[in-house]
Amino acid sequence: MKCLRVRAAVSVVALGLLAGCGDGRDFVDASSVPRLQAHAADALNGQPQVVPPRGPRSSFTAFRPTGDDGTRVVTAKWHGRKSGFTGDIWAWVPPEYHQARYAQSGFPVLIALPGSYGYPFNYWAGEAFALEERIAEWSQQGKTLPFIVVMPVLNPGRTYYDGSDIPGQPKMGTWLTEDVPDFARANFRTYDSRDGWAFMGSSSGGFAALKAVLKEPQKFKAAIVNGPDTAPDSPLWQGHPAEMRANDPRHLARQLAARNGLPVYLAFELGSKEAAVPDVKRFIKDHTGGPVHSTLFEIPDGVHSGHTYIQRMADSLHWISEQMQGPVPSV
Do residues 267 and 293 make contact, with C-beta atoms less than 8 angstroms apart? Predict the structure, then answer.
């Protein structure tokens, strides 16, 4: 899948440049997505505790505006104390975050990961996909939760680390599952429960998102998984078969089922023309059941590209939103 991911990166860059012209964005029809029902998280777990920003606050730089309401994507450099890695992170808070009636509320966090190397830029922060504008629209329509979106670099350079702590390499698994959440908790009002934490990723980022939720379900409840690899394949695993197995989503799903672990919710998106179709469908068939809840949104004529996945993003965000905790108004 490495070649596929590299080709996808070129495609996304090229299409992203085109998307910046004219009206600028992919057409996404979310008219069939229903309004959210009452959240299961409320009934099952009560109301998770709000965690105020803990600091140290980051020094943010404006990256791009996302609407007339004053929202914008911002960026900062973050030193991961647990991984030792320092990298760029882009972030966005929804319009509701600054509304008076939600001033005391926490917000769910979506850690969004790009495909290919995910370095030096996370393309979900860009205007080409307008992910943030779409979440603002869909949440105001009551179709999805108003997520805080946190978008870190995926790799420390043009090498694949499989979102993992590969022996002798930068600890990118710790970066994604420990340090990036610490960044969110330092700067924003979040929740102390896994009901407020989810991943979304495409291709190589989809692999990392899938693995993170299956490996640490006590921290993360859901993931949107777009055109992913379903097995680790970084060349850096050579000589480390046990560690590689410990980061294999197939093995992790079997372990979770064997111990009847915490339930996780996986929304897969897949273009019908992707080479990954057989592998992804096999993974869903083999591992859905028990604590693993899966749904598949297959996009007709879709290819391995973020421009395919954005077409069903409202459906995916709606599906995981039904399982998570949204902000609670004070009045």
Answer: no
Question: Tokens 């420390």 identify what position?
Answer: 156
- The packing angle between helices 204-215 and 249-258, to 10°, is 20
Mean pLDDT of 205-224: 98
- 260 to 217, 247, 256, 293: CA distances (angstroms): 12, 19, 6, 12
**Stretch among 46-60, 126-140, 308-322 having the lowest mean pLDDT:** 46-60
Handedness of CA 7, 151, 209, 320 (dihedral sign): negative
Tell me, what amino acid is at 283? Answer: F
pLDDT for res 330: 85
Q: What is the pLDDT of residue 46?
A: 60
Residue 319 identity: W
Give the tokens for residue 21: 């012209």
Give this prediction's pTM: 0.92
From 45, 42, 99, 98, select the one nearest 326 (Cα to Cα): 42
